[in-house]
Amino acid sequence: MQYFSPAKLNLFLKIWGKRFDNFHELTTLYQAIDFGDTLSLKNSMKDSLSSNVNELLSPSNLIWKSLEIFRRETQIHQPVSWHLNKSIPLQSGLGGGSSNAATALYALNEHFQTHIPITTLQLWAREIGSDVPFFFSSGTALGKGRGEHLFSIKKLNHKHKYVLYLDHQGIPTEKAYQSLLPQDYSTGNHNACFYGENDLEKSVFRIRTDLKNKKHMLERMWSPFESHVLMSGSGATLFVCYPEELEQDSKVSSQIHSLIKQTQGIPVSRLYREPHWYSLKQSTYKNSPLECFQPQI
């Protein structure tokens, strides 16, 4: 059986400072999108994992952690064979590894017909990583703490469309956070909404000036439209957000889609777990990214 493993965007990300446990206190708005990987499993004589990306075949892959937790909780030890078809770039800020781990838990539950509630799978997911529980949410959620404390939102009131600009160099999450300076932290009301801001851009752009230049280039190219450019998570993916209503004007819509094609962007839509996105048919999602757009500065 094959399962869809969706990417996520951070529509905003505020960092409030470092905690006593050396993690950072944050507030973020997660949004699942219809771009991602596919994961399949079947019974086997021994556990195995294959993938189109060799770097993912190590024992540290979070899929193995999901399998370990599932076996501990269910006492089902039947060996399984996994295949991961990767489209989400590594270290891209799109939550690929976290999504794969959540999808693995869901797939095991379906495969062995254990009927474990989604709420229980979400609790198990907290053992794996900060972003993993999000992939058992409604599809839009406010994250607090390290990002693991989730408050699902039915649907956002504002209607926007998104365009991804991938970058295959990647940014290690740990490096992005370690490079934060005290002046990078946000101050003020932790409960306010900061749509369109990402505090990690400050540290990442010091490491990767090319990404900073790429963002400025995209801002100039998209300036004729009511849009903004943002980095997702710890990078290195940038994305453009623009109001859906702009496409009601056929001329403007044509200009937007021409720009997307020119810049090799990937248009994506919001994704909601109705009833479960993991079981989406392949024709309904995107998992074949174009070449990364590298603007000439």
Automatic annotation (TrEMBL):
- Return the PANTHER family for the record: 4-DIPHOSPHOCYTIDYL-2-C-METHYL-D-ERYTHRITOL KINASE, CHLOROPLASTIC
Q: Which residues are in coiled coils?
A: none
The protein depicted here goes by the name 4-diphosphocytidyl-2-C-methyl-D-erythritol kinase
The record, for InterPro entries, names:
GHMP_kinase_C_sf, GHMP_kinase_N_dom, IspE, Ribosomal_Su5_D2-typ_SF, Ribsml_uS5_D2-typ_fold_subgr
EC number(s) of the enzyme? Answer: 2.7.1.148
Reactions the enzyme catalyzes = 4-CDP-2-C-methyl-D-erythritol + ATP = 4-CDP-2-C-methyl-D-erythritol 2-phosphate + ADP + H(+)
Supply the Gene3D superfamilies for this chain. Answer: 3.30.230.10, GHMP kinase, C-terminal domain (3.30.70.890)
Its biological function? Answer: Catalyzes the phosphorylation of the position 2 hydroxy group of 4-diphosphocytidyl-2C-methyl-D-erythritol.
> Pathway involvement?
Isoprenoid biosynthesis; isopentenyl diphosphate biosynthesis via DXP pathway; isopentenyl diphosphate from 1-deoxy-D-xylulose 5-phosphate: step 3/6
Q: Which organism is it from?
A: Chlamydia pneumoniae (Chlamydophila pneumoniae)
- Which positions fall inside the GHMP kinase N-terminal domain? 61-139
Example GO BP = isopentenyl diphosphate biosynthetic process, methylerythritol 4-phosphate pathway
Positions annotated to bind ATP: 89-99
